[in-house]
Amino acid sequence: MTYAMDSSRANRIAALGAVLSLPALLLFVSGMIQSATGAELMLLPDALLHPAVILGGLLVALVLNALVAVRLS
């Protein structure tokens, strides 16, 4: 048995994975700007700074993208 996914569904899952990765990306960019300039700049609202949001979003994005990339046979 082979599990195949059509390209439109794979594109939607990839877009969802990108959106779920945004809080981690914004946290990283904020830290890089602070390291480079010394300015206290936070690109994320306080509600998105919770570790469960950042790590959970990355974990769900990883699982979703793994479903697209891995074929079960």
Summarize, please.
This protein is mainly α and about 70 residues long.
Describe what you observe in this structure.
The protein has helices at residues 7-37, 51-69. With 73 residues, the protein is mainly alpha-helical. Helix 1 (7-37) packs antiparallel against helix 2. The termini are close together. The mean pLDDT is 85.
Low-confidence blocks of residues: none
Secondary-structure element series: HH
| SS summary, helix count | 2
Which class best fits the helix and strand makeup? mainly alpha
What distance lies between the first and last C-alpha atoms, to the nearest angstrom? Answer: 5 Å
Q: Sheet bearing the most strands, described?
A: none
Q: Report the average pLDDT across residues.
A: 85
Radius of gyration: 16 Å
Strand elements, count: 0
The portion of residues forming beta strands comes to under 5%
**What level of helicity do the residues show?**
55-70%
Shape: elongated
Describe the secondary structure blueprint for this structure.
Blueprint: H1 7-37, H2 51-69
What tags apply to this protein structure?
elongated; mainly alpha; 73 residues
